[in-house]
Give the backbone structure.
Amino acid sequence: MTDKGQKPRIAFFDFACCEGCQLTVLQLEEKLLDLLQHVEVVEWREAMSGKADSHDIAFCEGSITREADVQRIKTIRNTANTVVGLGSCACIGCHNALKNRWPMEDVVKVVYGSEAGQLDSIPARPITSVVNVDYRILGCPASLPEIDRVIKCILTGQEYPLPNQPVCVECKLNDTLCVLEKGEVCLGPVTRCGCNAICTAYGDACHGCRGLMDEANLMAAVKVLTAEQLHPIMEVVARRYDVGQDQVRQWFTMYNTPDLQLKEESEQT
Ligand code: SF4
Ligand code: SF4
Ligand code: SF4
């Protein structure tokens, strides 16, 4: 808790990632100026110099990919009253976890060459698999409207339950033409909404950057997106891409590798 009258101190921390989510927070622009009336930013490497000994609210971006990261995120958790997982790297593993699907030795060789030595590198996972977080902001990059919503919830002491509907719902609310009708493959039917279906609004497909919904029927989605399905709309997609189930599963790994691994493990038991 902060002392009476004192503004809560916010810090931003990054783990393995591209730091695009921190950049997105900066895109709050005027809202950021409003925010500064209510909080004190004490550490934010991407935006200011200096480090702080303590903080009340920690925004944590990126994935855990080294043993050293594990202790670091635990220390941040122990120091902060409130921890926010910022972006899909932090909350679902995102691109970082793609490496988990190959032997670490091969991954190191591909990235650093055959002369590469030992690296402090472990299978990538979201920070949420190491510590509990109080809030999650999804998206690659983190969804700007969700950043705004979560900050308001933090400052007013409210919880922020993640939406648990597919992106398709937001498409319908926006009256967006379904890209399946154009013969594009779209992962929206099993992807958690909350981005206001921004990609489909601009005519692109949803690539699943906010991760799977709870209880997403992944196996059904894989079948529906392949030539095995029967729906006339999907025939357009199947004719255009001639995709098999392995290809569809690969599309899902782009952001969801840890979830897929868990599903595979539970199917085998
Ligand atoms: S979620 Fe995407 S934009 Fe954000 S840090 Fe990770 S890779 Fe970058
Ligand atoms: S465009 Fe994608 S997300 Fe939108 S309604 Fe169609 S399948 Fe669902
Ligand atoms: S439409 Fe899909 S890919 Fe685009 S931001 Fe939303 S969840 Fe991510």
